[in-house]
Amino acid sequence: MLLKYVGSGFKSDSSERRPLIYTVTQITNEIKIILENSYPIVCVTGALSNFKLLNSGHMYFSIVDANAQLKAVMFKNSSISLPFTPEDGMKVLICGKLSSYVKYGGYQIVVNHMKQCGKGEFYEAYVKLKEKLKVEGIFSESFKKPIPTIVNKIGIVTSQDGAALFDILKVIDNLNANIEVLICPCKVQGKEAENEISKAIRYLNCHHKNLDVLLVGRGGGSIENLWAFNTECVARAIFDSKIPIVSCVGHETDFTITDIVADVRAPTPSAAAEIVLRSRNNIKSRIEFLQKSLNNTISFTLNYYIERFYRFVSTKVLTDPCLIYENKAFYLSELSIRLLKSIDKVIKSKSDKLKEIYHKLDILYPLSILKRGFSICYDSKNKIVKNSKSVSVGDSIKIKFASGILSAEVKNHE
Description:
Layout lengths: L23 H15 L3 E12 L5 E6 L4 E6 L1 H4 L11 E11 L4 E13 L2 H16 L16 E6 L4 H12 L5 E6 L7 H15 L5 E6 L13 H9 L4 E5 L7 H5 L2 E2 L3 H45 L2 H4 L2 H43 L2 H4 L5 E3 L17 E5 L4 E5 L5
Parallel strand pairs: 3-5, 6-7, 6-8, 8-9, 9-10
Antiparallel strand pairs: 1-2, 1-4, 2-3, 4-5, 11-12, 12-13
Helix pairs in contact: 4-8, 5-6
């Protein structure tokens, strides 16, 4: 519904009419109706720019020529049947309906059909320059310069008003990096951009040779907005740089000649700052961790020995040193008693053993037999007579008893 406000209250006299007053919604809705009714179906040719394929399957892009651009959208139900994959720089013919998006006050073409017409001027120029520089060996990894582990001075080549500079400085501030930052502002799009970018790079190399690294780039944009970073003079300025260069052009999906020539390519300006400061930040974090660990170790060790010290000085040995001698004297007395007991035990054991041996010897001693009523007979030669036949009748013999000896003469043999 289109509403218009009219009334005599807005007239100064009966012949004067004031202009109609619209709300924002009213005027945008009216423009939408006029636009869609005037251009029900249109076909447009141009190059694709800033192409994005969402997870939903919808495609958002711009179609551009040398002087203008037109926003476009191709919804999944139309894009699903495309026989090719659109990409930035590709020349296409699109057909669809012009529509106004009331909420944001803009207009776009809702594409129903798309036909590929070629690669487009931007893409062809990109491929041509890329092949030329590749043949010269400018892209070779052997020419890549390493980024210093510790970065203290950074040069930034970008627009002073762009979001890229803000993003880089924000990362540096968040990392609390105490470094020197030198900004060399320049244009990053338009006809003068490529010359200003290359001059800025050469200027820093000439007058600020002590810089550790250069960040060269800008925020995201269409292929034509990023085109300065696809030019030969910028590529050669980067290749000739004695200072290592990190390229940080556009968003993660954007890719330029600058990214290939540079020593390191960062997906975004923020990521570039993180890359060059990562080692520094890691070392800083490592130092802080080691410092904390050292402090904890020192504190633990001190507390441990302090505790041991107080435990030691509180022992009875130090609080009452006489206990040392008392304890030793008591222990010595105890040892003396134990020694005497051991000696008595050994003597008794040996005495009992000696008595046992004496008893056995006494049993085995020949003379002990005589006490039991036996006697021993000796011949004249004082040899023991073991057999009666060993003496003759008339021989003198001696008979030994337990007490005393008898002399006798052999009278006969039996």
